[in-house]
Amino acid sequence: MDEMSFRTLYDVQQLLKRYGTFVHVGKRMWDIELMFIEVKRLYESQMIDKKTFINAQLVLKREHRIEEEKEKDRSK
Protein backbone atom coordinates (compact mmCIF):
# COMPACT_ATOMS: atom_id res chain seq x y z
CA MET A 1 0.00 0.00 0.00
CA ASP A 2 1.20 3.49 -0.72
CA GLU A 3 1.97 5.58 2.34
CA MET A 4 -0.74 7.84 3.62
CA SER A 5 -0.13 10.60 6.10
CA PHE A 6 -2.51 10.67 9.01
CA ARG A 7 -3.21 13.90 10.80
CA THR A 8 -6.96 13.82 11.37
CA LEU A 9 -9.81 11.45 12.02
CA TYR A 10 -10.94 12.16 8.46
CA ASP A 11 -7.65 10.70 7.15
CA VAL A 12 -8.29 7.47 9.06
CA GLN A 13 -11.85 7.37 7.71
CA GLN A 14 -10.45 7.63 4.18
CA LEU A 15 -8.10 4.70 4.85
CA LEU A 16 -11.01 2.57 6.05
CA LYS A 17 -13.14 3.60 3.06
CA ARG A 18 -10.41 2.27 0.74
CA TYR A 19 -11.20 -1.16 2.16
CA GLY A 20 -14.97 -0.77 2.08
CA THR A 21 -15.40 0.07 5.77
CA PHE A 22 -17.69 2.95 6.63
CA VAL A 23 -18.02 3.79 10.32
CA HIS A 24 -20.88 5.87 11.65
CA VAL A 25 -22.37 4.64 14.89
CA GLY A 26 -23.82 8.01 15.85
CA LYS A 27 -21.55 9.07 18.69
CA ARG A 28 -18.05 10.29 17.89
CA MET A 29 -16.45 8.35 20.78
CA TRP A 30 -18.03 5.10 19.58
CA ASP A 31 -16.97 5.79 16.00
CA ILE A 32 -13.36 6.23 17.15
CA GLU A 33 -13.46 3.01 19.17
CA LEU A 34 -14.87 1.05 16.23
CA MET A 35 -12.20 2.54 13.96
CA PHE A 36 -9.54 1.23 16.38
CA ILE A 37 -10.95 -2.26 15.91
CA GLU A 38 -11.20 -1.96 12.13
CA VAL A 39 -7.67 -0.57 11.69
CA LYS A 40 -6.31 -3.38 13.86
CA ARG A 41 -8.22 -5.92 11.76
CA LEU A 42 -6.71 -4.50 8.56
CA TYR A 43 -3.23 -4.74 10.04
CA GLU A 44 -3.72 -8.29 11.32
CA SER A 45 -4.98 -9.27 7.86
CA GLN A 46 -1.78 -7.75 6.42
CA MET A 47 -3.79 -5.31 4.31
CA ILE A 48 -1.90 -2.32 5.74
CA ASP A 49 1.73 -2.07 6.82
CA LYS A 50 3.02 -1.46 10.34
CA LYS A 51 3.79 2.22 9.76
CA THR A 52 0.28 2.89 8.46
CA PHE A 53 -1.19 0.98 11.40
CA ILE A 54 0.85 2.91 13.98
CA ASN A 55 0.13 6.30 12.41
CA ALA A 56 -3.60 5.61 12.25
CA GLN A 57 -3.62 4.36 15.85
CA LEU A 58 -1.82 7.52 17.04
CA VAL A 59 -4.48 9.73 15.44
CA LEU A 60 -7.26 7.62 16.92
CA LYS A 61 -5.71 7.73 20.40
CA ARG A 62 -5.38 11.51 20.22
CA GLU A 63 -8.97 11.93 19.04
CA HIS A 64 -10.18 9.56 21.77
CA ARG A 65 -8.40 11.64 24.43
CA ILE A 66 -9.98 14.82 23.05
CA GLU A 67 -13.45 13.25 23.24
CA GLU A 68 -12.80 12.06 26.80
CA GLU A 69 -11.86 15.62 27.80
CA LYS A 70 -15.03 17.00 26.18
CA GLU A 71 -17.14 14.47 28.08
CA LYS A 72 -15.42 15.38 31.36
CA ASP A 73 -16.10 19.08 30.73
CA ARG A 74 -19.77 18.36 29.95
CA SER A 75 -20.23 16.45 33.19
CA LYS A 76 -18.96 19.32 35.39
Structure description:
This is Cytosolic protein. InterPro entries: YqgQ-like, YqgQ-like_sf. The chain is mostly helical. The chain has one domain: YqgQ-like (Helix Hairpins), CATH 1.10.287. The protein has 3 helices and no strands. The protein has helices spanning 9-18, 28-44, 50-74. α1 (9-18) packs across α2 and α2 packs antiparallel against α3 (50-74). The mean pLDDT is 92.
Question: How would the blueprint of this fold be written?
Answer:
Blueprint: H1 9-18, H2 28-44, H3 50-74
Helix pairs in contact: 1-2, 2-3
Provide a quick synopsis of the model.
With 76 residues, this protein is mostly helical.
Backbone CA Rg: 13 Å
Determine the strand fraction and express it as a percent band. Answer: under 5%
Main beta sheet, described? none
What is the first-to-last residue Cα distance? 45 Å
The percent of residues in helical segments reads 55-70%
Number of separate structural domains: 1
Protein structure class? mainly alpha
| Total of DSSP H or I helical runs spanning 4+ residues | 3
Shape: elongated
Protein name: Cytosolic protein
Organism: Companilactobacillus paralimentarius DSM 13238 = JCM 10415
InterPro entries: YqgQ-like, YqgQ-like_sf
